[in-house]
Design goal:
The structure holds two protein chains of two kinds. By secondary structure, chain A is mainly α. Chain A has a single domain, classed as MetI-like (MetI-like fold), CATH 1.10.3720. Chain A contains nine helices and no strands. Chain A starts with 8 loop residues before the first helix and ends with a helix. The mean pLDDT of chain A is 91. Chain B is of the alpha/beta class. Chain B is built from ten helices and 13 strands. Chain B folds into two domains: 138 residues, D-Maltodextrin-Binding Protein, domain 2 (3-Layer(aba) Sandwich), CATH 3.40.190.10; 86 residues, 3-Layer(aba) Sandwich (D-Maltodextrin-Binding Protein, domain 2). Chain B has a five-stranded mixed β-sheet, with helices on both faces. In chain B, strands 5-1-6 form a three-stranded parallel β-sheet. The chains are: A mainly alpha, B alpha/beta. At the A-B interface, α3, α4, α8 and α9 of A face α1, α4, α6, β10 and α7 of B. Chain A: One of its GO terms (cellular component) is ATP-binding cassette (ABC) transporter complex. Chain A: Its main location: membrane. Chain A: GO terms for molecular function: transmembrane transporter activity. Chain A: One of its GO terms (biological process) is amino acid transport.
């Protein structure tokens, strides 16, 4: 493994971390909105939420990511960076990957949050409505805070899955950990030790995530 | 500091990998289980090829195989005394090639396998049976790209993590933008719709794609690297190396070598080079 110093391992894993964090924030926001739609009293929004979740979560992630680059960007001409700038592809692909991960992971976030909403007794929402709060207020002030506190552990699962899913971004050339792994395997012809090293890298990323979020989940859980 | 931490992690992993390898039982190839003996006694062989490279190694929808690598593999098998019908093809993706040979999943590999020193640490090569070079494929009528000197401000495409992609990163990253996709077909579609100006990899691979879209794509024809394609063999099997080299020579001299290239990649207008001299002995 004397060739390790030739490669920027930490740089590659840093891109993985960036992809994960940005997509996690994006999917938390979009997933919460989707969950709100799925429990809303408006049939159109409910229908959209249900259709979106069932459609997107059943498409393989590789297809979504490849489509975001080959279909959306390359064929339909949607670009998320300055086309004339040097290094356009790197920036554009990174943003497209974040977009793809966000759209995909949001479906799982939505379902986790929706299951959390179901843990809040119906009486609470009814009481809130009786006090004169509207749907949005009920959700925002009464239901969601309790729902989120009960789904920290399932959301940690989604985050860990997302961290590992970011390896798919290499199919559109985002220079994250698995792309470096492909380069190293190609050059060094040493598959097993290199794979083990990258597997270890992902464990280093995800193990603390699970432990910390598990602890937080227990701290904030609503005791009923 | 940063480096030492990485190295320490590396040491742990190496130890782990070594212990795994020890469990696997490293059976050394000795004279008795040479490829040559296996072929003459079992009368069948398993060969690793690419399944997704038109003109070289392609699995067709009906399950049959075609391409130059396929022809070379069949010829070698025939010379070792195995009929084409008894040759089983197995997909050998680039990153798995060494392990397929080491574990004995395939008897030999003919899959655009470039001979290099790092690979020679884990496998032996016979050949080369072909010398390719990294080149550029452009849309027909594109005269602005004439070779590696004219890449300023151009968008290139190659496959994620592949040697050609790394070459571009190392040599032309200042001039050109590199788009990496998981498959060459994605690069070709990006080339056809104009997102990238050129696709870059070994010329003979590009010729295979150009032959798929007759009249739409042009090979620039100014290779800037040398890739010697060898036949991958189990480390230490010198008997097989000699037999395979003889088979390659025979194929070249009989004219079958040239004929196969002409049918498989000829339609692209690719100029078929002379047969290379055997260097791996």
């Amino acid at each position: 493994m004397d060739y390790l110093s030739k490669y920027d391992l930490l740089g590659a894993f840093w891109v993985t971390v960036q992809l994960t964090v940005l997509s996690a924030v994006g999917s938390l926001v979009w997933g919460t909105l989707l969950a709100a739609m799925r429990v809303s009293p408006v049939p159109l929004m409910r229908g959209f939420g249900t259709a979106y979740v069932n459609l997107v979560r059943n498409i393989p992630l590789t297809v979504i990511i490849t489509f975001s680059a080959v279909g959306l960007s390359s064929t339909l001409g949607v670009v998320l960076a300055d086309k004339n700038e040097h290094g356009f592809f790197e920036v554009n692909n990174f943003r497209l990957a974040v977009l793809g991960f966000t759209l995909y992971t949001a479906t799982f976030v939505c379902e986790a949050i929706r299951s959390g909403i179901n843990t809040v007794p119906v009486g609470q929402a009814e009481a809130a409505r009786a006090l004169g709060l509207g749907f949005g207020q009920t959700l925002r002030i009464v239901v969601l805070p309790q729902a989120l506190r009960s789904v920290v552990a399932p959301l940690a699962n989604v985050l860990i899955a997302l961290t590992k899913n970011t390896t798919v971004a290499s199919v559109i050339g985002v220079a994250e950990a698995s792309l470096l792994m492909a380069e190293m395997v190609e050059k060094q012809a040493d598959l097993l030790p290199i794979s083990a090293l990258f597997a270890l890298g992902f464990v280093v990323l995800t193990l603390p995530t699970g432990l910390v979020l598990g602890w937080i989940g227990r701290k904030v859980a609503v005791k009923r | 500091m940063r480096l030492s931490r990485v190295l320490r992690a590396g040491a742990v992993v190496t130890a782990l990998a070594l212990s795994v390898a020890a469990c696997g039982g490293g059976k050394k190839a000795d004279a008795s289980d040479s490829l040559v003996d296996k072929a003459s006694s079992a009368k069948k062989l398993t060969v690793g090829i690419k399944f997704d490279q038109p003109g070289l190694g392609l699995k067709k929808p009906d399950g049959s195989f075609e391409g130059f690598d396929v022809d070379v593999a069949r010829y070698i098998a025939k010379e070792l005394g195995v009929d084409a019908a008894n040759v089983t093809f197995k997909e050998a993706q680039s990153k798995e090639r060494e392990n397929l040979i080491k574990n004995g999943d395939v008897d030999f590999i003919v899959a655009t396998y470039s001979i290099n020193d790092d690979r020679k640490k884990s496998v032996d090569f016979a050949g080369p049976y072909f010398i390719a070079g990294q080149d550029l494929l452009v849309k027909k009528g594109n005269t602005s790209i004439t070779g590696k000197e004219s890449l300023n401000g151009k968008n290139l495409c190659s496959v994620t993590g592949s040697t050609p992609a790394q070459n571009i990163k190392d040599k032309f990253s200042k001039e050109a933008n590199l788009q990496q996709y998981g498959k060459y077909t994605d690069c070709i579609s990006a080339l056809l719709n104009g997102t990238v100006d050129a696709v870059s990899t070994d010329d003979v691979i590009l010729a295979g794609y150009a032959a798929q879209y007759p009249g739409k794509l042009d090979l620039v024809g100014q290779p800037f690297t040398t890739e010697k394609y060898g036949v991958g063999l189990k480390k230490g099997d010198t008997k097989a190396q000699k037999a395979v080299n003889d088979a390659i020579l025979k194929m070249e001299n009989s004219g079958d070598w040239k004929k196969s290239l002409e049918t498989n990649v000829g339609p692209s207008g690719y100029k078929i080079p002379d047969a290379p001299a055997i260097t791996e002995k």
